[in-house]
User: Fold this.
Amino acid sequence: MKPNILMIICHDLGQHLRCYDNLSVETPNIDSIAHNGTLFRNYFATAPLCSPSRGSIMTGKYPAKTGFMGLVNRGWELPNSEKTMPQYLKEIGYSTYLFGFQHERRNPKSLGYDYVFGWNDPPHLARKITPLVLDFIREVKVPFFACVGFFEVHRPWDIYRKVDPKIVKIPPYLPDTPEVREDLAMFYGAILETDYYVGKVLEALRENNKEEDTILIFTTDHGIAFPRAKSTLYDPGIKTTLIMRWPKGNLVNGKVYNELLSNVDLLPTILDIVNVEIPNSLQGKSFKPLIEGRDYKPREEIFAQKDWHDIYDPIRCIRTKRFKYIRNFVEGIWPYLPLPLDIEESLTRRSLGNSHYLRLREREELYDLENDPNEFYNLARDPKYLSVLESLRLKLQSWMEENDDPILKGAIPVPGKGFVQDPVPMFEDTKDDIVGKLM
Assistant:
């Protein structure tokens, strides 16, 4: 009998959970998945915004390869030619279900779902979606694949009961101001709401004797909606949660893995677990051998990109265990240019004013993550790191070429719309560099 697969995916969470040592409040239900299952500490999104990242989860491919490089509600869409996770599973006998939020196509059924619940009734809040999921768990026949999409913890947060601002843990990349504390207090309230309803799902699996036979996946799309996180390629923007539990498999006992993983790796891993041959077209790499304790060659690096969020802001990066290299393609003042609107209008952003948290963006950024985990000190001009810079620059260029990255041909328009904003200044030598003169 094939295992059931239930994937809970929320918005904008990053790794802000107690089990990731990254929160000021208890998240007992989500943490219990980690304590009884498996946690992946270095799991990265391919993009720091919703749609392209989720597209990679669904297809096992990078946004540059699929051409899915912006938000569905901004004119982008995962091409119908791209096969998705529910489609693969449907072909081998799974019934497929979507509850609540997805952000890959305008028509969620085209993703391969047999049944769609709660999609036409936004916002897709956990308190609205979870009762549908509980009824489903009680009645469903197996095997099933169900994707549960919670709108949380996307802004706005004023509908949740905030925590005490005095207890919040300030991320090291943000200043400790009353506004930041207030913003985080509301954010943590949304996390607690998410945790509560995840607990209801766990309880239903247990009470309906589906816990043992279900692969439970809890994940998110990208980092938190604060400056230097969401919509950036710094670690707080692309480092994300992945927790898995499967009592009948080897996803148990609170194991923690530190290997570098990308969310393009999730689909091939699931296919591998259910004994489906992994298509050569998938760019991700199955980590099933890792969790089974067999021979596994870890990734040496992960790649990520950003193109269109609320505005055009093309960026690419490569990250190894120790170093990160970021290539910016447009000029601007950080963080004003790349910030999405929900962050731009936030208490935290207003509290930054014109402080040192705003700085000119350079064409290239290089960070030594071992000595500078918060990515404050750009080493791209430091001669001591020239060999590292050149090596990572070349690897990133090769990755872009392998993906036929549209940025190699110039600025990337919104499909059918062109450039729906004023022209953005590019670095003077950008075009020459990206067509082969980079070295």
